[in-house]
Request: fold
Amino acid sequence: MNTQTLILAILNFQDASGYEIKKQSSEGVFSYFVDISYGSIYPTLSKLEADGLVFGRSESQSGKPDKKVFSITTKGRQEFIATLASPPAIDKFKSEFLLVAMSADLTSPEVITKAIDKRIIEMEELIKVITGLRVECDHPATQWITSYGLHVKGADLAFLRSNRDSLIAMAGKAIKLDEAAE
Amino acid sequence: MNTQTLILAILNFQDASGYEIKKQSSEGVFSYFVDISYGSIYPTLSKLEADGLVFGRSESQSGKPDKKVFSITTKGRQEFIATLASPPAIDKFKSEFLLVAMSADLTSPEVITKAIDKRIIEMEELIKVITGLRVECDHPATQWITSYGLHVKGADLAFLRSNRDSLIAMAGKAIKLDEAAE
DNA sequence: GGACACATGTAATCGGTTACATGATTAC
DNA sequence: GTAATCATGTAACCGATTACATGTGTCC
Reply:
């Protein structure tokens, strides 16, 4: 999923400045499955404007610096819809936690405990964020994906809580075997 | 999670050639949360060998070309354990499907149907792969992460099946609104 | 003799992040 | 006057992928 499509998707929902796009992608509705940096947002926005897919106008705000608000154009919306039509690529998923968990027997109970407890907290926070998003937005498709997220992340958290101790119990087993062999 | 740590993790479980590491990372136990390409495996393996974290030897096989099998060294294992000790970064997750689903009202029922049915099939296949992995390997920590995966992906698939039709029903709503406005 | 799986490697390229640079405005 | 948030933008860099290049051995 490239930055261009992501920005088009965000602007399709509502007008936004580069700064606001960044916020959406790291705190808002999109944060659950997307994240973009300023370093790619601003150049992409310029390119998008040059291609006529979005247009920007300066807006002055009281108590804040001016911002440049972008809107998607008809051409931009067409482009976005065309992108949606091609079958979505499989999810990209990378997890350091799973690597650590899979190597639990190599590390200490402390390391595993910290790792899983950190994950539990992160999961709880993500669920809170998604829950907050649901309340704010009554758009049906958004409700659908937030229900989906809540369902999956709820199951995830439940497993983590139920099986926390059994993972911690595995810590250090490989080390002990090594010592026994010496 | 960088390529170096990933390769160390794989070699910590068993010796492997570059080709086999690629297979592990895209078909084997690690495929669930990792994927690396040849273009980064081979150079990293050379670097790792130069640093004394792994060592390779040529092995001739009957009916197949020779392969260079790598093993992790004590130094490599220490390095890997040290990496595990730092708190794991939050999962990286990017989903084109969620973007499409969130924009369901912009597209046709056909596009949404294809997207969700593709996802259901992929999910079923992933569950099959993880199930297969469980049978092959009785390492406790691996059992733990595969149970975890099965639990979460099972919940995921259940949601997809239960809510497939409601998502499809949302398709085209935005288009109809546009037409009504004209 | 060609298709296919196995096997290794490099160079060009790319998409994106990090760090940097700058500045408005408010609140303390 | 300085810290914090809002706001925009660029340049250097990096990690990884893609495509390319090459070769072995098997099966039909």
Remarks:
- The helical segments of chain B are 3-13, 18-26, 38-50, 74-85, 96-102, 109-136, 140-170, 173-181.
- The CA atoms of residues 99 and 115 of chain B lie 11 Å apart.
